[in-house]
Amino acid sequence: MVELKSKNTKVGIDAGELVSFVVNGHEFIHQKGSPGWGSADTEMFPIIGPVNEAGFRVKTPKGDAVQDQHGHLRQMEYQLESQTDTSAIFAKQYRSGAEIINSKFPEKSTEEALTWPYDFRFEKSFLLKEGALEINFKITGEQGMPFMLGYHPAFKLQSKSPIIVTKDKKITLDEVLAVGSRAFQVADCTSVTLKDEREITIETEGFGNFMCWTEVRNMVCIEPISFYPYAVRQKDLHQGFQQLDRSAQFKVILKPEA
């Protein structure tokens, strides 16, 4: 476990996963073991969304890739590269065509191993600043590699009627629950505020959109995404790709209320 500390703030990171963000004694992150989801955060890369209806295949310029829901990056382990009292850098390295064991097989998937026809390096770094936690993502790889990126943090809820606020709308927890597994779309948006017992704002750079998901009332996932996957049929998921220009950077800033 990596711990970052600064004044009234403590951050817990377990093998690259943000498992705790405590400010003035208030825990903002959903805890493993609580109802709703078995993780606290993860990344969706190089695809976002399910592919079961497309035979677990995604089109790329180098042919079909074997992928499962939200991509194969989450099936790989992070390596800690460096850390200080207020920062930590983790990375994953992938070689084109390498088989990655799929944890969803055989209960939830027909694919035992996942593959991708491109090399890439994925870096996730944490920086604890005054009043905020900054999470940076850096992707480096082959020129023109297609990809999507989504960040999937889960926030702990402590009030009965939390509200998700954007620049032009207010979204209730009931609205998110009603959409179900498809996730509630928040298009063309770079900042969202979760108003609960304590407020926290999620600011982003590079993503451009959010989606919100939960199936319980004690947590909600507020997910910055580069593409909303349910805008197309699963066999057309490639329409949501952007192309890598050697490298790309994305940022998420978690800002609790002062």
Question: Which key features would you list for this structure?
Answer:
single chain; four-stranded antiparallel β-sheet; calcium; 46% strand; Aldose 1-epimerase; mainly beta; Gal_mutarotase_sf_dom; nine-stranded antiparallel β-sheet; globular; 1 helix; 258 residues; Beta-galactosidase, Chain A, domain 5
Would you spell out the secondary-structure blueprint of this structure?
Layout: E1 2-6, E2 9-14, E3 17-23, E4 26-27, E5 43-44, E6 57-60, E7 63-66, E8 79-83, E9 87-94, E10 100-101, E11 113-114, E12 120-129, E13 132-141, E14 146-147, E15 150-151, E16 154-156, E17 163-165, E18 170-172, H1 173-179, E19 184-186, E20 191-195, E21 199-205, E22 209-213, E23 219-225, E24 242-243, E25 247-256
Antiparallel strand pairs: 1-2, 2-3, 3-4, 5-15, 6-7, 8-9, 9-12, 10-11, 12-13, 13-25, 14-24, 16-23, 17-18, 17-20, 19-22, 20-21, 21-25, 22-23
Number of helices: 1
CATH class: Mainly Beta
Q: Name the beta content range.
A: over 45%
Mean pLDDT: 97
How would a crystallographer describe the biggest sheet?
9 strands, antiparallel
CATH architecture: Distorted Sandwich
CATH topology category name: Beta-galactosidase, Chain A, domain 5
Give, in spatial order, the strands making up the sheet with the most strands.
8-9-12-13-25-21-20-17-18
User: What overall geometry do the principal axes of the alpha carbons give?
Assistant: globular
| Class from secondary-structure proportions | mainly beta
Low-confidence stretches: none
Q: What is the number of E strands?
A: 25
Span from first to last CA?
27 Å
User: What is the total domain count?
Assistant: 1
Radius of gyration, CA atoms, in whole angstroms: 18 Å
List SSEs in N-to-C order.
EEEEEEEEEEEEEEEEEEHEEEEEEE
Helical content band: under 10%
Protein name: Aldose 1-epimerase
Organism: Flagellimonas lutimaris
Subunit structure: Monomer.
GO molecular function: carbohydrate binding; isomerase activity
